[in-house]
Design goal:
By secondary structure, this protein is an all-alpha fold. It is built from 17 helices and no strands. The termini are far apart.
C-alpha cells in the first residue's frame, strides 16, 4: 500500500519538538490562571491586624506565591545538573521527559485540591515534586539544546525566536480561553474543575508524545564532525560561524551577569504583577486575568517580529539592548497603572521584552563547543534560579511594604535593574572579534 506524502509529512512533524512546546504551554497557561484564581478565592476572607481587608488579602496571596515560588526555584538545582549531564552524554530526551512528569503531577494535585477541598498548602508539596523532576530549569534548556543542535550558529538566534513565537502563540490561545473555562464548573465540584481537567489532559498528552514520538539528534564528541554538522545545515549564501573549540570565558561571564540582572528585574516584576491586578482599582476577575495573561503572551509575537526586522541592521548585542530598553520603559509605566486600559498600554511598551534572554542563549551557544550546549544552558538556568532566591522575597516584601503609599514602586525598582543589565551587554558589544581569544578549559 502506498502511503500518501502528506502522511509522511504529518508524521515527521509529530516527531519534532514543536508539538510538545504547544501542548505544554497550552496546559501551563490554563494552570496559571486556575492557580491565580484559586488562591484569590481561598484568601478572600484573610485578615491582618492593622491592615484593611484588601491589604490583608494581598499579603496572604503574595506570601503564598513567595513560598511556593521559592520551593519551585530551589528544589530543581541538583536534578537539573544531573539531567544536563545525561543530556550531554547522549540522553537528550531526559531533560524533557522527566520535567514533563513533574508538570503533570503538579496539575493533577491542584485539581485534587479543588475537588477534595484540600488545604492550599498542599501545593507546596506539588512544588517539591515539580522541582525534583527538574521543572522548567531542565525542561526549557532541554528544548533549547534540541533546537540548537539542529541549527547553524549563524541562524540560531532566529530559530530560537521562532520557538519563542510558537510558545507565545500557544500561550496566547490558552490564556484567552482560560478565564472562560474557569467559569465552567459543576456545582458539586466548584470553580476551576473544567479548566484543570483540560490542563491535566494536555500535559498527559505532552508527556506521552515526548516518550513515544519525539525524535532528537545526538552530537558527536569529535569537533570536526560537529563543524560538519553545522555546515551541512547552512545556506550556501550565508556566512558560517563555526563552533568554537574552547570557551570564551569573558563573554560567557558578561552574558551570565546580564542575564541574571535582567531576570532579576523581569522575574521580580512578574512575581507581584499577578497580585497587583487582583486589587483595587483593577480588581480583575477570571476572564480579565486570562486576557491579561494573553497580553503577556502577545510579547512573544512582537519580540519575534522585532528580531526579524532588527537583525537585518543590528547585531545580537544591539537586539538585546533594544529588548531591555523596551522592558525598562514598559515596566516603569506600569508603576502608575490605575485602569485596565493603562495596563494594556504598559504591556504594549514591553513589546520587545523577550528578545534579550533568547538572544543571550543564542550568543552563549556561540561561545562554547556543541558538546557543551546542555550544561552551559542549564548552568545559565541554574544561575537564574539562584537569583530568584533573592528577588522573590525582595520584591514580595517591597511590594507589601509599599502597598499603602505606592504599590507600583516595585515596577520602578525593576526598571532600574533592567538598566543595570544593559552595562555588561554594552561591554560584550564593544569587544572587537579580533581581540577575542578563546581559552580552552
Amino acid at each position: 500500500m502506498v502511503v500518501p506524502n502528506w502522511f509522511h509529512a504529518a508524521f515527521g512533524l509529530l516527531r519534532q519538538i514543536e508539538p510538545i512546546i504547544v501542548l505544554e504551554e497550552l496546559g501551563s497557561t490554563l494552570f496559571d490562571t486556575a492557580l491565580q484564581m484559586v488562591v484569590k478565592d481561598r484568601y478572600a476572607n484573610a485578615t491582618e491586624p492593622g491592615h484593611s481587608a484588601e491589604d490583608a488579602q494581598q499579603k496572604a496571596i503574595t506570601d503564598f506565591y513567595m513560598t511556593n515560588n521559592l520551593i519551585i526555584q530551589l528544589t530543581p538545582i541538583i536534578p537539573a545538573l544531573i539531567l544536563a549531564k545525561l543530556s550531554d552524554r547522549g540522553w537528550r530526551k531526559a531533560p524533557i521527559v522527566t520535567p514533563l512528569t513533574g508538570y503533570l503531577l503538579s496539575r493533577l494535585i491542584l485539581l485534587l485540591v479543588v475537588v477534595l477541598r484540600l488545604p492550599l498548602q498542599v501545593m507546596y508539596g506539588a512544588g517539591v515534586l515539580f522541582g525534583l523532576s527538574g521543572g522548567y530549569t531542565s525542561y526549557w534548556p532541554g528544548v533549547m539544546t534540541v533546537v540548537s543542535l539542529d541549527t547553524t550558529a549563524t541562524d540560531r538566534s532566529k530559530v530560537l525566536m521562532k520557538v519563542e513565537l510558537l510558545y507565545g502563540i500557544a500561550g496566547l490561545v490558552g490564556s484567552l480561553v482560560s478565564g472562560h473555562l474557569f467559569c465552567l464548573y459543576s456545582s458539586s465540584l466548584g470553580n476551576g474543575t473544567v479548566l484543570l481537567i483540560v490542563s491535566t489532559l494536555l500535559h498527559l498528552l505532552c508527556l506521552l508524545h515526548s516518550i513515544f514520538l519525539l525524535q532528537v539528534k545526538g552530537v558527536s564528541n569529535r569537533e570536526p564532525e560537529e563543524k560538519h554538522h553545522l555546515l551541512s545545515h547552512a545556506s550556501t549564501n550565508t556566512p558560517v560561524v563555526e563552533a568554537p573549540i574552547g570557551i570564551n570565558k569573558v563573554n560567557v561571564a558578561l552574558l551570565f551577569v546580564a542575564a541574571i540582572l535582567y531576570d532579576f528585574a523581569v522575574g521580580g516584576a512578574v512575581e507581584v504583577l499577578g497580585a497587583f491586578v487582583l486589587k483595587a482599582p483593577l480588581s480583575w476577575d477570571a476572564t480579565l486575568v486570562g486576557y491579561g495573561n494573553a497580553a503577556g503572551c502577545v510579547i512573544f509575537l512582537t519580540s519575534y517580529f522585532g528580531v526579524i526586522g532588527f537583525r537585518r541592521c543590528c547585531s545580537d548585542t544591539s537586539l538585546i539592548l533594544i529588548g531591555m530598553l523596551s522592558f525598562a520603559f514598559g515596566i516603569y509605566f506600569m508603576s502608575f497603572v490605575t485602569t485596565t486600559l493603562t495596563f494594556y498600554l504598559a504591556r504594549a511598551l514591553t513589546l520587545f521584552a523577550l528578545i534579550p534572554m533568547t538572544t543571550i542563549r543564542a550568543l552563549l551557544s556561540q561561545q562554547v563547543p556543541a558538546s557543551s550546549y546542555g550544561i552551559t544552558l542549564t548552568s545559565l538556568q541554574l544561575a537564574l534560579k539562584f537569583a530568584s532566591l533573592a528577588y522573590i522575597p525582595a520584591f514580595t516584601k517591597l511590594y507589601q511594604g509599599t502597598l499603602d503609599w505606592f504599590p507600583g514602586f516595585v515596577f520602578t525598582f525593576a526598571s532600574i535593574f533592567t538598566v543595570l543589565g544593559m552595562i555588561p551587554i554594552s561591554i560584550v558589544g564593544c569587544r572587537s572579534p579580533q581581540r577575542q581569544q578563546y581559552e580552552e578549559i
